[in-house]
């Protein structure tokens, strides 16, 4: 561990997991930040980034299972995985409340649907923003 | 180069860099700005690069079954987004004039853009 002042980071992920490397970079950033004693206030999924939250993702065997990585990270380090409800519902990523039937929900804990204001409230709380 | 506007209170910058309809970025940046002002943050909204195409008043978005981004943008001041700028170099490149625009947008140089972003608490780019 290095001798740095602990920083609180808020990440905004805006690209889908298999169209860009943004999610990979975000996961690597989180791991490195935690390793160095910093904390992640929340990871906020916006725009196409909401696809990271879909429990129906089925990557090929030789690809990184981004969804599982996010879940592991959240459970191990109690990180909030917040998904913009408007951006997600537009793209068919919905929790049990928004799904036409509860069984169709593909957004489940540790991901949570929130409004965009939740992201800005975290920024207001002296978090350093990283947009990916 | 004209003086920078006085920005005394902490503010965030939202740069909107894409043309209005080829991606959802223009809509998404607008929604982000409204969410930020909704919790009392001061937002500086800047049209950069291809984003200045959003300022074309004559856009006929109904032809592609889309609501007009321009009309939504013109409501920004009503939602407390009043510090609105456009990158002069992009306006020049794309021959876009601010004269016809129905809401206040101030041109800024690239150097001013950098200064505004440097003093912001956060910068988001869409």
Automatic annotation (TrEMBL), chain B:
It comes from the Bacteria. Pfam families: DsrE. InterPro entries: DsrEFH-like, Sulphur_relay_DsrE/F-like, Sulphur_relay_TusC/DsrF. Belongs to the DsrF/TusC family. PANTHER family: PROTEIN TUSC (PTHR38780:SF1). This is tRNA 2-thiouridine synthesizing protein C. The lineage of its organism: Bacteria, Pseudomonadati, Pseudomonadota, Gammaproteobacteria, Alteromonadales.
């Amino acid at each position: 561990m290095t001798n740095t002042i602990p920083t609180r980071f808020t990440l905004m992920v805006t690209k889908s997991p298999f169209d860009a490397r943004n999610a990979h970079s975000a996961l690597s950033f989180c791991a490195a930040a935690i390793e160095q004693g910093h904390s992640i206030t929340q990871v906020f999924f916006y725009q196409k980034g909401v696809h990271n939250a879909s429990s129906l993702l089925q990557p090929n065997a030789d690809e990184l299972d981004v969804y599982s990585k996010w879940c592991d990270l959240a459970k191990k380090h109690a990180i909030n995985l917040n998904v913009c409800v408007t951006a997600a519902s537009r793209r068919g990523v919905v929790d049990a409340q928004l799904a036409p039937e509860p069984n169709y929900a593909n957004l489940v804990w540790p991901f949570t649907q929130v409004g965009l204001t939740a992201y800005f409230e975290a920024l207001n709380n002296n978090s350093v923003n990283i947009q990916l | 180069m004209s003086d920078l506007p006085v920005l005394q209170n902490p503010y965030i910058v939202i740069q909107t860099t894409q043309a209005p309809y080829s991606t959802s970025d223009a809509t998404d940046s607008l929604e982000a700005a409204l969410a930020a002002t909704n919790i009392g943050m001061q937002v500086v909204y800047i049209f950069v690069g291809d984003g200045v195409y959003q300022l074309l008043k004559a856009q006929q978005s109904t032809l592609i079954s889309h609501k007009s981004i321009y009309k939504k943008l013109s409501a920004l001041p009503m939602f407390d987004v009043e510090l609105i700028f456009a990158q002069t170099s992009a306006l020049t490149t794309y021959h876009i004039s601010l004269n016809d625009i129905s809401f206040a947008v101030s041109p800024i140089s690239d150097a001013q853009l950098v200064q505004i972003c440097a003093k912001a608490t956060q910068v988001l780019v869409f």
